[in-house]
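Reviewer 2 asked us to include a model.

Predict the structure of this chain.
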Amino acid sequence: MLTRKILCYCLMACLLGFGSLVSANAPYASILAYTQGQNMQPTMNMLAVLNIINLTPWEIHVGDPTNKTDIMKGFSGPQIPNTPTAVNSFWLKGVTGADDSSGGGNKASGSSGFAFHSVQIGLSNPNNSWVQSSANNNKNYNSNSIDLTSKANGSSQNPYQKYAAHTAYFSLPIVINSTTGQQNAKTAALNFMVTGSEGFATPSAMSVGKYSYMAAYALSFGDGTNNYGWSTNNTNIPATMGAPPYSSTQKVTQLLTIQAAGSQSGWTPTSITAGSLSKPAYLNTAALMYPNFSNLSGVGVVQGINYDLVALLQSGDYANCSLIFMAVPHGAITPGQ
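Predicted model (structure tokens):
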């Protein structure tokens, strides 16, 4: 069972360890994509596809324009129709509407418009950690990943202590209102992060040579000041000789996170996340919102109506993972917790 807990200190401290890619003050939203429980059975099932869907009038660029190739190594897997393919940087055109943020000046007429633009990315087997913390015999190792496994006590990253097994994450930039991935005064940016662990737990006690473990707290959503999260005993590792048991026990947990980027970010968590399920038997969601992004970008949908930009993460039992971008009339969704 997943138990909701308020983790102001723990999650603030965790965010401090993400380094230069992630600021402790940057708003973020996170979901559980997959986790194993007792007897290696999943307590959270998912279909191994990530949908990235653009329901906005703004172009969206995914990936670092200076490092365009194989941007999701380890995370991406068999593509449709089951042919392994690297995912390179790409952009999704905005919905054809009253304006065209790519500068073409075209307007929708008749059948020329599209309801949305999207991509489907096949994912690696979720039973194996999508992000590996070392290159040793790991096909999923991503050289851009950040190792969280063995941060020493007393360091600036001491909240991590020593995770029980390989724990790592990678961060992928996304820029809205851009076809090139470059940021400017009319764009919004965020980082899409994937965290994977083969044992998302920390040593809690030792007796007669046996270590006991407690569930490590997972990110949920917050604004850098008010942070919330959950932990689950399903990821606990039984008392085991030696610390940490890298090979003796494996209980994979996968998390997806979006976090605001840019020095003058206007992103804020939204009240959508307040309804996140304590036990995501079917669906769990989390979202960030950029209020009045149509004003910043100069591009809207219907003249005279201001639009907020919403980035929504979604996953659940027997469902695809999704990252959905929406243009929502201003005021339709409440910012804050």
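The CA atoms of residues 166 and 198 lie 5 Å apart. DSSP finds two helices and 22 strands in the chain. We have added this to the supplementary material.
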